[in-house]
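Could someone model heme C with this protein?
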Amino acid sequence: MADSNAKMTQATPQEIIISILAGLFAPLLAIFLIVQLVLGIQAEHKPDLSAEAAEKATLKRIQPFGKLVALDANAPRVEKSGKEVYDAVCSSCHGSGALGAPKFESRGDWGGRIGQGYDTLLKHAIEGIRQMPPRGGDDTLSDLEMARAVVFMANAGGASFKEPPASTPPAAVPATAVAPPADGNAAAAKP
Ligand code: HEC
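Reply:
Sure, complex below.
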């Protein structure tokens, strides 16, 4: 009995060494895992040093903040069709009937309005009426585009308006006004 008691309290040198090693092992393992974790995270964030990536980054850094776009002011404006205008602008309200707008293709909604006549509808569409904003809220729409959109919508609601003809490009200055008189110079040269 005495022997076994002594064994319980007095550890052999071997046991001491084992317990010291075991005690050190746990924190060492923890440190090792933390180091591995940090190295792993760093590896993921390694910068891409390829020439391609460098060029991309440079271009991004030196990109101009204002871009020049060459627009030809004399280029003929392409007027949108009624459907294009409707899809782009008018449908946001007239597609669903939002704000009480007459709904697209609803004869009930459009019947009474069509009765006012095309000119009145167009005037209201261009100038706005109650919740209907002038030109549907898009100032860039021309009168012709508005007219086409009104015809497109009204016809879908039961009207049979005719689409307005495409506007003829403003005739530059009449040729006769610019052309110098055939004998102009000759006349001036005469004494
Ligand atoms: C912000 C919503 C909104 C947009 C966008 C909009 N409308 Fe309207 N529109 C309305 C509302 C609301 C009415 C009903 C106004 C009323 O009679 O009180 C209306 C009515 C009309 C009418 C009938 C006017 C009348 O006299 O009865 C026409 C025509 C019309 N819109 C054309 C257009 C066209 C064309 C576009 C696109 C260029 C357009 N709307 C875009 C809300 C809109």
